[in-house]
Design a protein that fits this description.
It contains nine helices and twelve strands. The strands form two sheets. The protein has an eight-stranded mixed β-sheet with strand order 4-3-2-6-5-1-11-12. It has a four-stranded antiparallel β-sheet with strand order 7-8-9-10. Helix 1 runs antiparallel to helix 2. The protein starts with a strand and ends with a strand.
């Protein structure tokens, strides 16, 4: 049987240690472990990598601790605009949604785009129309309300500034979530979900729902989920860049991931991290920030969650 494994992230950035209380740190680690255990149990039970990453990301979306689903940040108009994507490394099928509101688990809608539409990427009103046709229940705005997120927004509302979830001036709550997995058959998948950036305007979309930028999976190479400064991850086509280094330069998963996060993304001014898995169950989780909420669990005995370096 193939080594099966799963890795998750809950955002990267300036995780100010002084502002992270022991209680809060324990809450984050518990939430990460719960998500990790959920995905791992599915893999152990013979489920596919796609099923595992979707269910794992749903657990993270349901936690108010992360900037996705329930804990999404506020836009300039005091609303929530969420993005998500998922990709199947076996078939290269993929689905992405952007600028959606009221959907409890955006990653599930992304999977439905992948499996129940002829398309890859749906956005805004069209994505919402698609959700309605599939009888998705729309949650009231109060479901997504989080006091800390609202406070973050109030500090910069009516200004032209916006802030990434892990900006230098922020407190103790960070973001974008994702999962990558390798199942017992050696198939891999990736999923990513986010609430975007605080006070964003004009329907800004980051890298999370973009296949090849914030999310990618291909059995030939690897599955990747990214977190960080989205504009730079889009310009660097980061997720696909890692896969390219493996495919065309025969680099290992770890070396390719490190090259992109510690060199290539820094060269264009970006910061953040990624999680990666290959068809042998190997995992890489590099980041160039102070920390990244992350975890990994594998059938070869690895089981850990971490925040700082």
């Amino acid at each position: 049987m193939n080594t099966f494994s799963i890795a998750i992230h809950g955002g990267a950035g300036t995780l100010v240690k002084g502002m992270m209380t022991p209680e809060l740190e324990a809450q984050y680690k518990l939430a990460l472990q719960r998500a990790l255990d959920t995905g791992y149990a599915l893999l152990k039970g013979g489920k596919t990598a796609v099923e595992a990453v979707e269910e794992t990301v749903k657990v993270l979306e349901d936690s108010p601790l992360f900037n996705a689903g329930k804990g999404s940040v506020f836009t300039a108009t005091e609303t929530h605009e969420m993005d998500a994507s998922i990709m199947d490394g076996k078939t290269l099928n993929a689905g992405g949604v952007s600028l959606i509101t009221g959907i409890k688990n955006p990653v599930s809608l992304a999977r439905d785009v992948m499996e129940k539409s002829e398309h890859v990427f749906l956005a805004g009103e069209g994505a919402m129309q698609f959700a309605k046709e599939l009888n998705y229940k729309l949650e009231d705005a109060t479901y997504f309300y989080d006091e800390l997120r609202h406070k973050q927004w109030l500090e910069i509302k009516d200004t032209d500034s916006f802030q990434l979830d892990h900006a230098k001036k922020k407190d103790s709550k960070f973001g974008t979530v994702g999962a990558v997995a390798c199942d017992q058959d050696g198939n891999i998948a990736a999923a990513t979900s986010t609430g975007g950036m605080t006070n964003k305007k004009w329907g800004r979309v980051g890298d999370s729902p973009m296949i090849g930028a914030g999310n990618y999976a291909n059995n030939k190479t690897c599955a990747i989920s990214c977190t960080g400064s989205g504009e730079f991850f889009i310009r660097g086509v980061v997720a696909y860049d890692v896969a390219c280094l493996i495919e065309h330069k025969n680099m290992s998963l770890q070396d390719a991931s490190n090259e992109v996060i510690h060199k290539r993304i820094l060269e264009i001014g970006g910061d953040g991290g990624l999680i990666a898995v290959d068809t042998k169950g190997n995992i890489a989780m590099p980041f160039n920030t102070e920390g990244m909420y992350r975890g990994q669990k594998s059938s070869n005995g690895i089981d850990e969650v971490s925040i700082y370096k």
